[in-house]
Inverse folding.
């Protein structure tokens, strides 16, 4: 404990009736506070303080103790984890209301520092701007440092200052396990541990996790490697429970929210609960109808023909029954695919003719806007917004690249959520075979490649072609999908400079580089388990903790002591999808087995072939099943072959007559194997 705190304790003891009694009570208070401060466990800290409260104390100490206990109970027991957010936003701190010079004040430092840190991670207006985030993190750092000085045994405060807490659980691998398999398996296991912690410790009776429906619904996005690539009954049931509960909320009764705000936020409550269920339970007619309801709203309420004759959304703000007519907000944006995300997935899987008409007409609008050079926008650049009803580039603001259609300054600022639009364009090409929907990708790819080959000597001005080229990495995923589907070499030059680790492996077979990336994610999840679980206060930021580190972080000028886990890599390698599961997913397989004691690396996939390397860490043979998503109808030869032998362990013939045809086999214990499926020639 700091000398200041000791002085405060002595001062508190001085008001007690007897010198000897005062010394005894002061010693007991000091011991309790030191014990409470040094424990890593908030529940244990609360119990220590409750026991201390059972003893007689004079005012103001007794009142301060009651206030502190109340606040810690809130931290532990309130259903809303981020109850402090409004206060921290306005005051950059949280007042516990203790008296001046209270000896209990040092115990508040830990809670206040955590509140400030998590609010800084949550707020888009702060987190995206180091200069705005700096004062928040500086305030948190001072509180953490003071707390660590007062209570040096507390590991939680030290964790926030860059001293990692290593997980007690280990995942040892047999000597013959490939390095990639050992590292991927550890990443999957630790991610599963985190997901199950949330289900076991945070899921409430109504299905929420403590962040509110609008944030809780986003959790599935980082669950994807476990939720979509594998079949974990407990996790699948939790997602189903949450999705059903969300769609049954009063504001969702019409199939979309009745609460008016911008599309980035209104769409979450439906897109982030229907989409995962269409992966998990695609034959359920209820989820089909919920997806089609979004297309119906788009067709009949949210869109119209603009003055140029193109179909577009009328506003950035709309609900299930209203469209905001404010001209400032009257923009279609690259975020709007989120409103119909489940319907886009349904269209991809079924080829529904009505959806082809609807979505093609909408993408025609964006092809036209991309081609135009208008209001300073270079030709060939997809804008972030198109105004309604005139169809002009951008919003009512002076700059084409900043529509100013929302109160948050960066949300719709170019390039905004460009990847949503480019994925939708390449999906439309895939569904229609019309090359015009690739034109925006081709023009933007050419502009970026030109910039990469001959970058300007100085920072380009906003809105210029060079500035756009510098900030358009979001096109990479759509280009990768196109290349993946066609085998075309059209974008090879660009993808050589801008591609994912998984696709580098698929294209060049760099297994050691892939293993390195797996190990980085395993290491990210091997430390600071608490930062992904009990410390989290905003459920749309569960894996964000490592972002507080680095040169502009909570300890300025330092390197990053904790990496961010790459859940996208885990999903891609286990399923063969070159992108994400959110828009235009191309996952080739779902392994109908839990994400425990298993490693699965899809090495090749397409409409006529599938190959995966597998390793079973169990000590016994493992019954396996899988659903295959990309293979076209026909008859296939299947072989499961150990890597140490040319002779297959098992062969079979597989006839595919419909999507998601299952295959079953047995995977031997602790023996690297390759599963290969090839189509028989007619």
């Amino acid at each position: 404990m700091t000398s200041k705190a000791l002085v405060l304790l002595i001062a508190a003891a001085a008001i007690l009736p007897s010198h000897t009694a005062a010394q005894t009570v002061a010693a007991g208070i000091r011991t309790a506070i030191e014990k409470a401060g040094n424990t890593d466990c908030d529940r244990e800290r609360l119990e220590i303080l409750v026991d201390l409260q059972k003893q007689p104390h004079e005012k103001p100490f007794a009142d301060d103790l009651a206030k502190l206990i109340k606040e810690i109970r809130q931290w532990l027991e309130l259903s809303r984890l981020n109850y402090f957010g409004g206060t921290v936003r306005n005051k950059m701190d949280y007042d516990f209301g203790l008296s001046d010079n209270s000896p209990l004040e040092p115990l508040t430092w830990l809670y206040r520092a955590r509140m400030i840190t998590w609010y800084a991670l949550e707020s888009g207006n702060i987190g995206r701007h180091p200069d705005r985030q700096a004062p928040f993190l500086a305030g948190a750092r001072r509180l953490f440092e003071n707390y660590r000085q007062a209570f040096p045994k507390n590991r939680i405060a030290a964790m926030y200052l860059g001293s990692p807490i290593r997980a007690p659980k280990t995942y040892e691998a047999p000597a013959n396990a490939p390095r990639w398999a050992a590292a991927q398996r550890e990443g999957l296991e630790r991610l599963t541990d985190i997901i199950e912690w949330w289900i076991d410790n945070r899921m409430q009776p109504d299905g929420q996790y403590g962040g509110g429906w609008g944030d809780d619904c986003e959790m599935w996005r980082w669950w994807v490697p476990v939720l979509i690539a594998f079949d974990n009954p407990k996790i699948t049931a939790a997602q189903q429970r949450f999705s059903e509960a969300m769609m049954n909320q009063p504001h969702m009764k019409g199939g979309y929210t009745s609460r008016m705000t911008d599309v980035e936020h209104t769409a979450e409550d439906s897109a982030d609960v229907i989409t995962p269920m269409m992966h998990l339970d695609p034959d359920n007619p209820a989820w089909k109808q919920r997806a089609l309801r979004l297309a119906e709203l788009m067709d009949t309420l949210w869109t119209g023909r603009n003055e140029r004759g193109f179909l577009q959304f009328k506003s950035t703000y709309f609900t299930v029954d209203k469209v905001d007519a404010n001209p400032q907000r009257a923009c279609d944006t690259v975020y709007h695919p989120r409103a119909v995300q489940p319907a886009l997935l349904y269209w991809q899987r079924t080829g529904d003719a009505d959806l082809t008409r609807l979505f093609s007409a909408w993408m025609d609008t964006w092809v036209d806007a991309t081609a135009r050079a208008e209001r300073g926008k270079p030709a060939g650049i997809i804008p972030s917004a198109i105004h309604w009803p005139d169809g002009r580039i951008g919003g009512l603001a002076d700059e084409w690249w900043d529509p100013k259609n929302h109160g948050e300054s960066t949300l719709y600022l170019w390039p905004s959520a460009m990847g949503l639009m480019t994925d939708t364009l390449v999906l439309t090409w895939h569904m229609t075979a019309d090359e015009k929907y690739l034109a925006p990708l081709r023009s933007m790819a050419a502009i970026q490649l030109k910039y990469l080959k001959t970058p300007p000597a100085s920072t380009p001005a906003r809105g210029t072609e060079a500035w756009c080229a510098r900030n358009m990495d979001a096109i990479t995923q759509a280009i990768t999908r196109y290349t993946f589907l066609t085998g075309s070499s059209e974008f090879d030059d660009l993808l050589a400079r801008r591609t994912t680790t998984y696709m580098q492996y698929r294209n060049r077979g760099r297994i050691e580089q892939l293993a390195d990336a797996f190990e980085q994610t395993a290491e990210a999840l091997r430390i600071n388990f608490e930062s992904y679980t009990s410390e989290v206060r905003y459920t749309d930021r569960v894996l964000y903790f490592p972002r507080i580190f680095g040169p502009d972080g909570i300890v300025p000028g330092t390197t990053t002591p904790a990496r961010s886990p790459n859940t996208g890599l885990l999903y891609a390698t286990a399923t063969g999808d070159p992108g994400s599961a959110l828009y235009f997913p191309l996952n080739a397989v779902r392994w109908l087995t839990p994400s425990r004691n298993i490693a699965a690396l899809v090495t090749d996939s397409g409409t006529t072939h599938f190959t995966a390397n597998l390793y079973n860490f169990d000590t016994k043979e493992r019954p396996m099943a899988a659903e295959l998503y990309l293979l076209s109808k026909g008859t296939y030869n299947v072989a499961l072959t150990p890597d140490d032998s040319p002779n297959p362990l098992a062969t079979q013939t597989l006839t595919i007559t419909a999507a998601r045809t299952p295959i079953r086999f047995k995977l031997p214990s602790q023996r690297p194997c390759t599963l290969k499926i090839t189509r028989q020639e007619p």
